């Protein structure tokens, strides 16, 4: 962390107070939260991370009880899933470069993969089998994250002010909601209903949320909106209507 901080100071030193004063003011986080497009993305980020957050504290006991897994198998459960996660990031980046208008589809596909993989976990009977759905979950999470995080930035560009701290704070909040509930809610569900019901519920939640991303299908067609500051300082009136609106703003 110390090395990272020193590198940040060297590569991105804090600006002078005057430069800071000239920076645009970002949209307040509470206004971003009520934007329906941003809310849909935040909900997808939270939902897609629920299986990972809920399985991490519960799958070890289940593996020991249901398949007699050894300690080294429990410890290495998540290691193979790292590789499909990296593959998912790479695939999504390449697809987005060719078909950028399908970002919502990549997210929906990822949630469908997560849902199907979550439902398959309870059917596994040995260590080799359980790796497959876990790899599917991590691959799907990579699709959702890699497709929807840039969508947040684009939404801020076209619907708000191009300052990204607050919108990515919303993304972090979405992750934290899933991981904060994981150890508490997941263990309670396993205790009262069972591990199978936990996985079926998580899979169903992702399957049902995937069609909601259809709401984002026209995001790529949105045109950037100019803030009042840009209109006043950068654009002159182009007609009678614009002149009247500018006079109202000045007033």
UniProtKB/TrEMBL annotation:
Residues 1-18 form the signal peptide. One of its GO terms (molecular function) is acetylcholine transmembrane transporter activity. The chain crosses the membrane at residues 37-55, 76-97, 103-123, 130-155, 167-186, 198-216. InterPro entries: MFS_trans_sf (IPR036259), MFS_Vesicular_Transporter (IPR050930). Keywords: Glycoprotein, Membrane, Neurotransmitter transport, Signal, Transmembrane, Transmembrane helix, Transport. It comes from the Eukaryota. It is found in: Membrane. GO terms for biological process: chemical synaptic transmission. It is a multi-pass membrane protein. One of its GO terms (cellular component) is AP-2 adaptor complex. PANTHER family: GH10249P, VESICULAR ACETYLCHOLINE TRANSPORTER. This is VACHA protein.
